[in-house]
Design goal:
mainly beta; globular; 52% strand; 5 strands
């Protein structure tokens, strides 16, 4: 699945991938640990639509699992409305 053209948000459904935790932000001062969804061809920061931007304990339960998500794809973030563990 290709990322959005430019910075336009795009609705997606059925995005599958493995959730992991790792650094985000390169070598900048804003570098922090984030949760990622890795589809095998793309990798996006995973956030819940109504969850906090950082330290979302609800998302932590998905680390190490394969999931299916629906939501809005931004430049580097999948803002999830639904997350389902599939493996």
């Amino acid at each position: 699945m290709a990322g959005p053209v430019g910075d336009e948000p795009r609705r997606v459904s059925g995005v599958t991938g493995r959730v992991s935790r790792g650094p985000f932000g390169g070598a900048s001062k804003s570098r922090h640990v984030a949760l990622w969804i890795d589809t095998g061809s793309e990798r996006w920061v995973l956030r819940r639509r109504h969850g906090p931007a950082m330290g979302d304990r609800t998302l932590a339960r998905y680390v190490g699992h394969d999931v299916r998500c629906s939501g809005t794809l931004l430049a580097h973030t999948l803002l999830a409305d639904e997350i389902e563990i599939i493996g």
